[in-house]
C-alpha cells in the first residue's frame, strides 16, 4: 500500500487560514487552499510569516471556494516561488479575481496608514496566479499528477464551492472545505461524500445547532417589521460574498409576499457585493430549484424598486441623515473593515437602531465583541456606546451545524477509515470529534498544526 503524508498548516485551532498539504512521495506535493488568517492583529502577523514549506516544491494547488480565509494568500504563494497549477470551479475563479483585488486594495490602504507601503503581494502576483489557474466543472475527474485524479463535488456553501476529492489506486481523501447549511436559499445542497477513505471535515459550527430556516425567516420578517413600525434603522453587517445576496433575496421575498412595505429604502453599502452580483446572475444553473423558478418567472431575486446601491463613501456618509425607517446592508460581516464600522460609530449609540448579526464572528473581532453584549466598544480608535438593540440569526449561516455535520459523516461512514476535524475554534472542533466517536464509532481526530499524518493513499 502506498503512503502519503498529510500536514495541516492552517485552519487548525482556528476557523481561518485554511492550508493543507498532501505529500505523495516520488509523485508530487499538493496543497488544498491557501487562505488568510483573520481576526485582528495576531492574524496579520501570521499572514506575514514565511510559509513553513518551500512554495517552489508544490506542484498543484486545489481551491475549495473563494472566501478570503481559503484564497487570501495565493498571490503570496506565487510571490514566494510557487509555479505549479491551480484548479477550482469556474465560479470560484471568477469570484476570487474580485475578492483578491479587493483585498489588495485594503492592504494598500492599511500600508499607507502605517507609512511602510508593505503589502503581502502585488498586482503582478495576482495576475500571475490567474495565468496558471484552470477551471473544472463539478463531477468531472481530471488528472493532477501521474496516476492521481481530482474531482470537485458541490459543497453547497457558496456559489462555486466544492469539496475536493483526490484519488489514487481506488482509494481517496475528501477535503470538504466549508460545508453548506442545506437547504440554502440560493445554491444547491451539499453532495454526499460517500466512498472516501479519509475525510478532512469543517467544524465551524461543530458545537452548535442552528435554528431552522423557517424560524430564521420568520424572525427576520419580525425584525424588519418591528424596525419599520418604530421608524428605526436596521443595520446588517454582511459578508459581501453570499450573505449579502441571501439578505437581498430574503428582502425581495418579503416585499413580494406583502411582508414588508416596498417603499422603505434599502441601501446596499458594499461595493464588493455589487461587483459579485453579475457572477451570480451568470451562474443560475448552480441555483437550487426554488431560486431558479424565481428567475424563470422574470423575478430578479437580488433587486427590487427601493434598493439603492451605494456608489461611494460620500453617499455612504449621507445615509444616516435620511429620515424615516431604512435598512442598511454593509460590509464586512465581522465589523472589521468595509463600510459597516463607520455606520456602527453613528448608529450603535442610538436605541432606535437594530443591529442584526447573521454570520460567524471570529474571536478578536469587533463583531464578536458586539455579539457577546459588550456595552462599550472601540471602533477606529473611538469609544462607542452600544445602546442599539442587538439581534442574531444563525439560521442564515452558510455552514452546517453540529447535527448537519454528524448526519453528513453518517452517510459516508461505511468507507471512512479516519476523519481529520479542522476549521473550527478548539471547543467546536473537539466537541465534534467526540460526537463522531461516540455516535458513529469512527476514528476522528483534531490534528495538530505542522504534524505529519501518514495515510494510505
Quick structural summary:
The protein has helices at 41-48, 68-71, 74-79, 90-114, 123-131, 213-229, 243-256, 271-281, 289-296, 313-318, 340-347, 366-371, 402-412, 426-440; strands at 3-10, 19-24, 28-32, 60-62, 85-88, 133-135, 142-145, 148-154, 162-168, 171-175, 198-202, 233-238, 266-269, 307-309, 326-331, 353-357, 376-379, 382-385, 389-392, 418-422, 444-445, 452-456.
Protein architecture, described:
This protein has helices at residues 41-48, 68-71, 74-79, 90-114, 123-131, 213-229, 243-256, 271-281, 289-296, 313-318, 340-347, 366-371, 402-412, 426-440, and strands at residues 3-10, 19-24, 28-32, 60-62, 85-88, 133-135, 142-145, 148-154, 162-168, 171-175, 198-202, 233-238, 266-269, 307-309, 326-331, 353-357, 376-379, 382-385, 389-392, 418-422, 444-445, 452-456. With 457 residues, it is α/β, with parallel strands linked by helices. It has 2 domains: 3-208 and 398-456, Metallo-beta-lactamase, Chain A, CATH 3.60.15.10; 213-392, 3-Layer(aba) Sandwich (Rossmann fold), CATH 3.40.50.10890. The strands form 4 sheets. A 7-stranded mixed sheet has the order 6-5-4-3-2-1-22. A 7-stranded mixed sheet has the order 7-8-9-10-11-20-21, covered by helices on one side. Strands 14-13-15-12-16-19 form a 6-stranded parallel sheet, with helices on both faces. A hairpin with a 2-residue loop joins strand 17 (376-379) and strand 18. The chain is globular and about 70 Å long. The N and C termini lie close together (7 Å). 48% of the residues are buried. The model has no long low-confidence stretch (mean pLDDT 94).
